[in-house]
Amino acid sequence: MTDLHSHLRARLLTAVTELGLPRAEAESLVRLDPPKNRDHGDVALGTFQLAKLAGKAPPALAAELAAKITADAIVESASAAGPFVNFRFRRGALAREVLSAIQGDLAPYGKARSNGQIVCIDFSSPNIAKPFHIGHMRSTVIGNSLCRIHRHQGATVHGINHLGDWGMPFAKMMTAYMRWGNEQELHKSPMRYMFDLYKRYGVEVKQNPALDDEAAAHFRALESGADNQERRMWRLLRDESLKAFQGPYTRLGVTFDHVTGESFFEDKMEAAMQRVTASSVLEDSDGAQVVWLKELGIKEPCLLRKSDGTTLYHTRDLAAAFYREQQFHPTRILYVVGAEQKLHFDQLKGVLTKMQEPIAKAVEHVPFGLVLSKTEDGKWEKFASRAGNAVFLDEILDESVAKVRSIIREKNPDLPNADEVAEQIGVSAIVFNDLKNSRIKDVKFDWDAMLNFDGETGPYVQFACARLSSILRKVGTQVPSVDAIDCDVLADAERVLLVMMDFGTAVQRAAEQSEPSHVTAHTIALAGEIHSYLRDHYVVGQEAKVRDARLVLVDAARRLLTTGLSLLGIKAPERM
RNA sequence: GCGCCCGUAGCUCAGCUGGAUAGAGCGGCGGUCUCCGAAGCCGCAGGUCAGAGGUUCGAAUCCUCUCGGGCGCGCCA
User: Fold this and answer.
1) Under 8 Å CB-to-CB from A152, ≥6 apart: which residues?
2) Domains of chain A
3) How many angstroms separate the CA of A423 from the C1' of B32?
4) What beta strand segments (E) does A227-345 contain?
5) CA A295 → CA A280, A353, A364, distances in Å?
6) How far is the CA of A127 from the C1' of B57 (A)?
7) What is the distance in angstroms measured between the alpha-carbon CA of A463 and the sugar C1' of B44?
8) Following CA atoms A451, A454, A457, A460 in sequence, which dihedral angle do they give, to the nearest 10 degrees?
C-alpha cells in the first residue's frame, strides 16, 4: 500500500468512526480497490458490507462518506456513484509519490527490508542421466522467478535444486550403460548418448522384462553404501549430467543456493524413518511400510519403504523436509513441481500432519500445467519435436535466438553486439511465454505464435525498455531529482502513473499465490501505457520544465520495467 | 470406478478472492513513420462467460448436477 492509500484509508476510518461505526470491525471493511473502469476514479470503495454494519442502504452510506472526505493536499475528490465511492488523487501528489519512490528505489518498487519470512523453494530438480528438455523448463523458470520475487519482498530465500539423482530411473540408466555403453562414446556427447541408452532400455525392456529386476538389483547395490561398481558409475553419470545442465541454466540465468539431490539424503533416510516409526504412524502393508491417511481424506497410502527394503521418492522428500526444517527453519517450503504430482505432495504433507510435525504447515505444492505442442491436425498434445521425440531445451532456445537474430539483421543492422542481444531476447521470449499465463494452465507451445514477437510478449516489453533507454540517451542530460521538477506537469501521464502504482500489489499477489504471471501482466500493462503516452508526449525539444518532468517519468518507467523483468529472470537490453 | 484441475471472442488468455457497461493480445479489416525506436500507436468487427438448477440486493466468480478436455490413483520419480 502506498502513502496515498494509507492517507486516504486513515481519513476514511476517521469518517466511518464519526458515523458511529465500530472502528475495529470497519478496519477490515475499508478496502480500496482499483475500479473496474479507471474513468470512475483512481481507487474505489464498495460500501456493501459497511452499509450492512451501519444498518443503512449502501448508496446512502456512500453519499455520506463522499461528503465527509473533502479535498486536501492529496485527495482531489470523492464522489458517490450508487453504492461506490470513487476517489481521485491530486495529479501532482500522485506523480510525486510514485516517482520519488521509484527513483529512490524504495519498496515496493525497490527491494524491501526483511519481512521475516524464510522461504525454501524446491525447483527445477531434473532427473540426471536424462537430457534437459522442454518439460524441465517450467519448474526452472517459475521457481527462479519465485526466488527473485520473494527476495524482492524481503524474504530470506533458499533456492534448492532437488536433483533426481537416486532411485529406479537412474538404476535403469545404469543398467543400460553397463549392458550397451562405453565411456569413450559417453564423453563425446554425454546427454545425447545417455538419452539414446535410456530410450534403448525402454524398447528392450518390453522384450525382456527381466531388465527391471536387473535395475532393481543395481539400485540395491547402490543403496547398500558400498564403494562398488554401481557407486562409481553413479558418480560418473551424475557428474556428466551436472556439467550438461549447466548450459541451459546459464542461458536461462538460473542459479541455485543449494544443489542437494536425492542422493544427498542417502544417509539421512534411516533417521527420518526412525522418526516416522517413533510417531507410530507407520504400518506394514503387503511387506511394504506405509502411512495411511484416510482420516485426512486421502485414500491412497503413502509408501515409505518397499518390501525389498529400499527407499522411495516419498522417503527422500520426507528426509529433505526434516533436513530443511533443521537447517533453514523455513516459514514456507514451495515445491515447484508439475500438477500431475499433486497426490504425492498431498501425501507428503499428510504424513507430516499425521506425525504432528509443525513443518507440515510450511509445505506447499506449487503445481503447474504441461507444455503442449500443436499437432498437424491442430490438436494439443505433450510436447514433441517435429520429428516426434522429446525436445532438448537448447534446440528451442537456439531456434528462438536465430529468429531474433534475423529480425535484428532486418530492423537494426548496425547494432554492435547483435549476437549477445539476440541471445538475450530470444531466450527471454521463451521464458516470458512460460510465465505469461496462470501457471496451472498448460503452456501451448505453438512455434508460429512463439516466434511472433508482436503484442504481449517478452520482446514487446524489452522493446519498451530499449525505446525508453534511447530517449534518455538522446536527451543526454542527467535525470533530475523528483524534488526538482514540477509534478503538476505530469497530470497528462495519469494512466502511466496509476499502472505504476499497482506494481506493489502485483508483486505481493505473485508472492502470496506463487504466481509470477501477476508480475508479467504488470510489465505488459506498463509497457503499453508508456508506449501510448510517448505517442503524443515528446521529451526531446520540450521547454525545460516539461522536458525535466517527462524525463523523470521515462526514467522511472524504464527502471520499473527493468525491475519487473528482473523478477521474471529476464534482462532488459539498452538497444535491440 | 474414485479424486483433482481446466472450460470466457475464430485462436491464446486476463478478469485483483461476490460488485459498476465482461477486458487484452494474436489473426482479420482500416488508418499511422522526411520529430525522441513502426518489435510501436490509433480505430473497426468479434461474447447465451460449456449447459441446467440453486444461494444472494448482486454470480464469469460460491454450491449441486450434467456435458466436454486433461491429469492422477502401492512397492517409478
Assistant:
1) A111, A112, A507, A563, A567
2) 3-89 (3.30.1360.70), 167-256 (no CATH)
3) 31
4) 258-259, 282-285, 288-291, 302-305, 332-336
5) 15, 11, 20
6) 56
7) 27
8) 120
| Tens-digit pLDDT profile for residues A243-260 | 889 999 999 999 999 999
Instruction: Please name the residue that has the C-alpha cell 459497511.
Output: A50
Residues A273-310: tens digit of each pLDDT: 999 999 999 999 999 999 999 999 999 999 999 998 98
Interior/surface letters A264-276, b for 16+ CB within 10 angstroms, e for the rest: bbbebbeebbeeb
The pLDDT value given to residue A1: 62
Look at A158-172, A183-197, A345-359, A397-411 and tell me which has the smallest mean pLDDT. Answer: A183-197
List Cα–Cα distances, A156 to A283, A337, A508, A567, in angstroms: 38, 21, 15, 15
Cβ of A441 less than 7 A from strand B: yes
By the 8 A CB rule, do A371 and A445 touch?
yes
Q: State whether the beta carbon of A364 lies below 7 angstroms from any atom of strand B.
A: no
In this complex, the answer to whether residue A306 has its CB under 7 A from any atom of chain B, a nucleic strand, is: yes
Q: Which residues are paired to A335 by β-bridges? A: A122, A365
ipTM, two decimals, is 0.96
d(CA A435, CA A433): 6
Do residues A499 and A103 lie in contact, with contact meaning Cβ atoms separated by under 8 Å?
no
Contact A103, A555 (CB under 8 A): yes
d(CA A203, CA A180): 13
Query: Which long-range contacts does A223-229 make (Cβ < 8 Å, 24+ apart)?
Result: A223/A266, A223/A310, A223/A311, A225/A266, A225/A267, A229/A178
What pLDDT was estimated at residue A99? 97
Q: What is the pLDDT of residue A542?
A: 94
User: Which grid coordinates are listed for A81?
Assistant: 456513484
- C-alpha atoms less than 13 angstroms from C-alpha of A45 in its C-beta half-sphere: 32
Contact between the CB of A417 and strand B at under 7 Å: no
**pLDDT at res. A389:** 58
The answer to whether A106 touches A403, Cβ cutoff 8 Å, is no
Per-residue pLDDT at A113: 94
pLDDT of residue A195: 82
pLDDT at A386 over 60: no
Q: Quick check: A137 and A371 in contact, CB under 8 A? A: yes
Sequence-ordered strand ranges (E) for A342-457: 363-366, 371-374, 380-382, 443-445
Nucleic strand B under 7 Å from the C-beta of A447 = no
Query: How big is the CA angle at A237 (ends A234 and A243), to the nearest 5 degrees?
Result: 135
The strand pairing partners of A27, in sequence order, are none
User: Angle, to 10 degrees, between the axis of helix A393-411 and the axis of helix A418-435?
Assistant: 120
- If you write DSSP's letter for every residue of A363-382 in order, what string do you get? EEEE----EEEE-TTS-EEE
Instruction: Identify the three-state secondary structure at position A37.
Output: coil
**Does strand B come within 7 Å of the CB of A44?**
yes
Q: Which residue has the cell 521470449?
A: A429
Helix (H, G, I), strand (E, B) or coil at A182: coil
